[in-house]
Amino acid sequence: MIIKTPGRIHTKGASSMQLDLLRREITIKLVYYGPPFSGKTTNLQALESLVAPEIRGPLLSVDTKDDRTILFDLLPVQIEAGRGVQIRLKLYTVPGQVIHRATRALILQGVDGVAFIADSQRTQLQANRASFLDLRANLKERGVDPTSIPMVIQFNKRDLPNIISDEEIDALALKSPEPIHKAIATQGEGVRETLYTLFELTWKKLNMQHQIEERLEIEQNQVLSSIAKILGPFKGEPPKGGLGHASSRASGQ
Ligand SMILES: Nc1nc2c(ncn2[C@@H]2O[C@H](COP(=O)(O)OP(=O)(O)OP(=O)(O)O)[C@@H](O)[C@H]2O)c(=O)[nH]1
Ligand SMILES: [Mg+2]
């Protein structure tokens, strides 16, 4: 961690979290990673329509005519977390196609948390695995321990035929260190839960490292419910401390 000016904290290496104590602003970078066509861009499109336009920028997409991401998508969201604290979330996607590895590595720079968007179709399971390994390798090459990065896995495209079953996902969730959500991103299902859980894990980690709550005199519950509020109502069991609690594994539908 480097302190550049009094009241301003920038982090180096894995995290790009910036904490400006004077302006009471925190900037957090979350990256949607995963194989080609798994629905990373669709997640951000769904979030763009879920979050009120006053608190988000337009979704910036750098893609080809046939909607393949070639650089990234970026959705900035600004959340008022009480006591004058502003949380600036920068939500990025990477391009999934194998040839864009260098771009993915670049976008991972300074990542605070990862949503891994897997494709539920059985034909894509190998692509999911390859992308997961690519993520780990990219992080390691940057000197980042992959297990230190808060991560949530989303099994998307639950509406399609020939997909990995709910029971198989539930079994995976029991042994997975990362929370798993099921989703149909095209219908907005599971999209909120994925982001909420990722935010919760990331916030807790950053707070442990930088004592954000103590420095800004804010309550974790207040922060989490501010995020829940901007995402709108969730399906399923109401979580503790807000919505979509990280320990509720394999939820989402
Ligand atoms: N049936 C179904 N289709 C989906 C779902 N989510 C995304 N898609 C479709 O899958 C295709 C790829 O979605 P994208 O969001 O562009 O995928 P991506 O992961 O951003 O792909 P790259 O940018 O190439 O890595 C699009 O045609 C989406 O409409 C889903 O839940 N169900
Ligand atoms: Mg995309």
Structure overview:
With 253 residues, the chain is an alpha/beta fold. The protein has a single domain (2-231), classed as Rossmann fold (3-Layer(aba) Sandwich), CATH 3.40.50.300. It is built from seven helices and ten strands. Strands 1, 2, 3, 4, 5, 6, 7, 8, 9 and 10 form a ten-stranded mixed β-sheet that branches. α5 packs antiparallel against α7 (220-231). The chain is globular and about 50 Å long. Bound molecules: guanosine-5'-triphosphate (GTP) and magnesium ion. Magnesium ion binds at residues 40-41, 69, 93. Magnesium ion (MG) is lined by residues 40-41, 69, 93.
Mean pLDDT: 89
The percent of residues in helical segments reads 25-40%
CATH classification, class level = Alpha Beta
Main β-sheet: number of strands, strand sense, barrel status? Answer: 10 strands, mixed
SSE string: EEEEHEEEHEHEHEHHH
Low-pLDDT sequence parts: 1-5, 237-253
Number of helices: 7
CATH architecture type: 3-Layer(aba) Sandwich
Q: Within the CATH hierarchy, at the fold level, what is the topology?
A: Rossmann fold
Structural class: alpha/beta
Outline? globular
Euclidean distance between termini CA atoms: 39 Å
Rounded to the nearest angstrom, the radius of gyration is: 17 Å
Bound molecules: guanosine-5'-triphosphate, magnesium ion
Total strands: the figure is 10
Beta-strand percent range: 15-25%
Q: CATH homologous superfamily name? A: P-loop containing nucleotide triphosphate hydrolases
Number of domains: 1
